[in-house]
Amino acid sequence: MIPNFGFAGFLANRFVQTLALVIIALVATNTPVFAQSNVQGYIYGTVSGAGSGSVVTAVNNDTGLKRTAIPSASGAFNLASLPTGSYTVTLTTPGQPDQVSKELLVNLGSGTAVSFGATADQTLKLDKFVVSGSSISPIDSSSAESVTILMAQQIQQVPVERNSTAVALLAPGTSLGIAAFGNLASFGGSSVAENAYYVNGFNLTNFRNGLGGGSVPFEFYDQFEVKTGGYSAEFGRSTGGVINATTKSGSNTFKAGVNVYYEPDHLRLKSPNSVESNGSLYADNSKNYDVSTVGNVWASGPIIPNKVFFYGLYNYNNASHRDAEGVSTYYTQKTNNPFYGGKLDWNITDDHTISITGIKDKRRFDTNTSDYNDTTGVIGASHGLTYSDRGGHDVIANYVGHFSPDLTVTALYGDGTASESDFTGNNYIVDSRVSPAQILSGSSSLMANLLDTRKSLRVDLSYHYNLMGSHELRFGYDLEKTTVTSVTTYGGSGIYYRYYNTAPGKTVNGVIVPAGVTQYVREQIYGNNGNFTTDSGAYYIEDNWKLMDDHLLLSLGLRDDDYNNKNKSGQSFIHMKDQFSPRLAISYDINKDGRSKLFANFGRYSVPVATNTNVRFAGGETYTQDYFALNGVDPVTKLPTVGAQLGAHYVLPGEDGTVHDPKTIVNQDLKPMYQDEYIIGYQKAVNKDWTVGVRGIYREMTHFIEDVDVDLVPGDDSTLVDVLTNPGRTMVIWGDPYGTGTLKQYTLSPSQQGYAGQNYPLATRKYYAAEFFWEKINRDNWWLQGSYTWSHSYGNDEGSVLSDIAQTDAGITELFDWPQIMNGRYGNLSNDRRHRFKLFGAYSLSDEWQVAANFLLQSGAPKIAIGYWPGPDANLSSYGAAFFYVNGVVVPRGSLGEQPQMWQLDLSTHYTPKWGKKKLVFGLDVFNVFNNHTVMETYVYAESGGSGVVNPAYNATTVYQNPLYVRLSASYKY
Description:
Blueprint: H1 6-29, E1 41-47, E2 55-60, E3 66-69, E4 76-82, E5 85-92, E6 99-100, E7 104-106, E8 111-116, E9 135-136, E10 146-151, H2 152-155, H3 164-168, E11 174-176, E12 185-187, E13 196-199, E14 202-203, E15 221-229, E16 242-247, E17 255-263, E18 274-275, E19 281-283, E20 289-304, E21 308-325, E22 329-336, E23 339-349, E24 352-360, E25 363-373, E26 378-402, E27 407-423, E28 429-431, E29 438-441, E30 447-466, E31 470-489, E32 495-501, E33 507-508, E34 511-512, E35 519-547, E36 552-566, E37 572-588, E38 596-607, H4 611-617, E39 622-633, E40 640-645, E41 650-656, E42 673-685, E43 690-703, E44 706-711, E45 720-725, E46 731-735, E47 744-748, E48 765-779, E49 782-795, E50 827-828, E51 835-844, E52 849-858, H5 874-877, E53 885-886, E54 889-890, E55 902-911, E56 920-927, E57 935-938, E58 957-960, E59 965-973
Parallel strand pairs: 1-8, 13-16, 28-32
Antiparallel strand pairs: 1-4, 2-3, 2-5, 5-6, 5-7, 8-9, 10-15, 11-12, 13-14, 15-16, 17-20, 17-59, 18-19, 20-21, 21-22, 21-23, 22-25, 23-24, 24-26, 25-26, 26-27, 27-30, 28-29, 30-31, 31-35, 32-35, 33-34, 35-36, 35-39, 36-37, 37-38, 38-42, 39-40, 39-41, 42-43, 43-48, 44-45, 46-47, 48-49, 49-50, ...
C-alpha cells in the first residue's frame, strides 16, 4: 500500500487499483481497453462497396483539426472522441472522385451517422445535415439513451430563462420543483436533489444536499446534453437525470462581442394578493419589485492558428428584489457579482489535444429584513443585514489522445470550491410577550460558514475491435474527493434569545417562578463545527457491440460505485462498497437505413449519501438552553438584561458535542439508495423534415436512506436511539441502552423497529410514464420540437429532500422519524404531474426578423394537509404539525386533489437589421403573455397550536405562476 500523502497519495493508491483492473480486463479480452469522453461526440457510418485504400477524413471547420479512419471489411468506420462542432467528412478512394459531405454537426455525447455510397450518385439528401455525395442518418441508432441535445445558438432563439434548469425543462419528463428549493428540475418523478451536473466533464453537483450545481453564465455554454433516463455506465451518482454541458471554445477566426439583457420592473406585472380562509390578508404582492441587468463581454480566436485557441468571457450581473413576505415582514435583496470564464484549447497534434477551463463564479447576496405594516404600508425597523456567499472557482483540465485508429484515451482533472455561507452581525431575538410573536432582530436561519472543496480525477479508455461484429470496449475510472468545512450557529454572538411573559408561582424549566419575576428569557445555543470528507470512486466497463452490419447495437455495461463518508474525526461514518449497477441496452435499426430504431434498456442507478448527513448526523452537534429572569431589553440592540437563572442548564439528549461511534447511529447493514429503471421505445424519421418517437418508462426506488427512532430493546422507550437506516428493512446496530459501559450488537427486524404499537412501513417510490416526442428540423426557415408526457409518481417517500415542508436535509428529513409520521403518506408524491405538454420552436420571417414561441401545459401538484398528532404521546406531540392528520383523522396523500392545471405561452422576436451587417441583434422576450395567475403552491399546515385547532392560513396561496414580464436584449459581435 502506498503511503497516504493527502490527495496525491490517495490518487496514487487508486491509480494502482485502476491499473490492476485494466490489466485484468486486457487479459480477459486479449485487447486494449478504454472509454468515451463525456465532453466529446463522434462520427460513425458505413461505406458501401469500399475499395482497398479507402480513407474517411473528418475536418473541423473551425479549428482545422483532422481525423482519419479506414473502413473495415464490412465498410464500417468510426471517428471517436471528436470535439463538438462543425465538420466536413470526405471519402477518398483510389481511382474514384472524392465524396464530400457538406457541413455537419457533432453534438455532445452522441453520434452523427454518415453513409457513403459506392458512387457519388447514391445519395439521400437530408437538409438538416445538408449533404452531397453521402447520406446522413437523422436518428442516432448508436444509442438507446433518453437524451435531448440543445445547442446554445438554438436556445438563444426561443424565450427561456437563461440557466441550465430552463434548458432541462424543455426535455420530456421534466418538471419544476417547489420554489423553496430554488430553480431546479425534477426528472422522472425524482426529487430535485437527485440530479448530476457536469460542465466540460467536471462534476459540479452540490454534494452537500444535492440541490443544484455550480453556476455558469448562460453565455459561456455551448451545448447541453439533458439525459432523462437510460444513460450508460459512464454516468452515475444520480437517480434523477443528468445535465451535461460544454463551454464555448475559440477557432481560427478572431471573434468578439458584447451583449446586454435587461428585465425592468415597470414591464413586470404583479401577482394577486393571497388571502386566508377568514378573509385576512396572507401575503401582499402589490409591493413586489424585481429588476435585473446582465451584460457579457467576450472574445475568442487563435493564439497559434490551427494549434492553440482561446475563449474569454466577463459577465456582469446586477439584480434587485423586494418582497413583502406575508403582512408583517418586508425584505430587499441585492446582488452585483461579476463572473470570469475562460478556456484554452491546444491541438498538440491531430491525435492529441488538451483544454483548460477556468471559472470564477463567487457571488454575494445582501438581504435586509424589516418589520412591515401592510395596512399603512410603512416599513419598520430593520432586523439587520444578512450576507450570503455562493459559488467559488473551478479549474478543469481535459486531455484526449488517439494512440491508434482504434484506441483512445481521455483524462480529466478538476479542482473547485463552492461557498454556501450565510452570516449576520445581529442576534436572532424573538419577542413572544406580544401576539403574534415579533422578530426584534436577526434571522431564524442558522448562520453558517460553509465551504466545499472538490478534487476530481477521471480516466477513460475506448478500444474498437472486430469479433462476431464490431465492438467498442470502454473502461473508465473516476475519483472525487470532497471536503466540507462547516461552522454553523445562530447569528451575532451565537445565542438565540426569546422573551416570554410569566407570573410568580408558575413553572418554568422545572422550577417555580419566584416573586417579582413577570418576564423571562430563554437563551438557546446551537453549534456544529468541523471538517468532513467524502471519497467517491467508481469503475465501469461497457461493451457496445454492433451486429447485423452495424444495424443492431447491444450495450452491456457494469458500474461499481464506492462512497466513503467520514465524520469530523476522520473516521468512516458510512462506507458503501461494491455498489454494482448493471446497464443493458439495445438499439435496432429496423429498416437498416438509419431512419427508424427500436430501443430498450435497463439500468440501476444510485445516489451518494449527502455530505449534509455527515455534518448533521456525525458532526457532534451542541444544543443547549438556559432560562433567566428578564430584567430589561436594550431599546437599540434589543439584547436582554438578565437576572437569576431559572432551572438547570439543559442539554438536548445526544446533542452535547460528542462525535458518536458510527456503529451506534448507522445501520451496519446499510444498503445504498438506488433505483431500477426500465425503458422501451421507438423512433422514426417520417420524412426528411420530421422525426417522431415514443417510449414507456418504469422506475422503482425501493432502498432509501433516512433516520428513524427505534427502541434497542423493543417495548422499552428508555432505550430510544436515532439510527440512519433503510426504512422498513432489517437493521444491525450497536448500543449500550442501560449504560453498562459495553456495546452490544442488536439485529432488529422491521417488526421490531416500531414505536407505540406501530411499525415502520417500507420506503418506496414508483414512477410510470409514456412519452411522445417529435422534432421538425431546421428547414424552410423554421424548426419545432415538442413532447407530451403522461406520468404517475407515487409512494411514501419523495427522495432525498422533502417538498412537503421544503426540508433540505437530504437523507435525514422528518420522514420516518416516527412510524406515525408515515400514516397517510402513501399516495401521489410532490413531483407528480400527470400531464405535461411542451412545444417550442422558431420561424424566420425574413433575413432580418425571426419569431419564436415556447408553450407549456401541465397538471398541478397534489394538495396535502399537515396537522398535529391527536394523541397524548409526548414524543409525537413534540414534533408539532408534522402529521397527515386533521382534527384527529388521517388525510391520505392525494385525497385532496391537485393544484389547478397551469399553462403558459412565451413569445420572442429578434431583429437583425441589414444596416448592422448581421452583427447587431435586438431581442424582445415576453414571458407568460396572457398573464395567467395559476396557483402553484399553497400553505400546507391545516392546524395551528394543536390537534383540532383550525389554521386559517391553510390553503392560502404561497406561490403563483410568475406574472407577465419582459426581457430586452441587444448584442453586437464581429
